[in-house]
Amino acid sequence: MWYKPILWISLLLFWPPERTRWVIAENSSLSVNGSTNINKFSCEIPSYDQTDTLTVSRKSKEIALTGNVGLKIITFDCHNSMMTRDLRKTLKESQFPRLYIRFLSLSEMPQLRPEPQQVTGWVNIELAGATKRLEINYQVSMDDQKVIHLLGSRNINFSDFNLVPPRKLGGMIKTNDQLTVAFHLRMSAVN
């Protein structure tokens, strides 16, 4: 009977992990919302210009979400040309033309159904040459057309990435340090 526990341990160690790949669609988007001492603003990247894949895998209790999203800073649109130019300059677009989100993990395996499921996960965000590891709040769902929706949001600060918020008119208009970054990835499952 001593061999039964060893057999179970062997099966757990060598059992292939559960793995799913999600291809990111072009109609995925990212927005950055913030405020100044006089108003609020919203800047967005309205579409994703490349094809990337995220992989969700489970091995024992760990859930890995791996893959990258690389967004061009030049595609940010704040719906105001001066604000758009200031944001791109603040994010050092000429030196660091992309914002990267590198996915690392999920708190649990998502159940793909129409009702959004709340999960958390860890990512590395690389912006203007600085990288910060952050926990993200997600909503995961699947619609009737089998499109997987991964919505994520997180408050960050310009200072987290060694950036100074933009100022205008000799410092009379000051952008607050805190921003809310939100993204909506639309994906399809592939095997």
TrEMBL record:
At the top level, the lineage of the source is Bacteria
Q: What is the lineage of its organism?
A: Bacteria, Pseudomonadati, Bacteroidota, Sphingobacteriia, Sphingobacteriales
Q: What is this protein called?
A: YceI-like domain-containing protein
This chain's source organism reads: Mucilaginibacter pineti
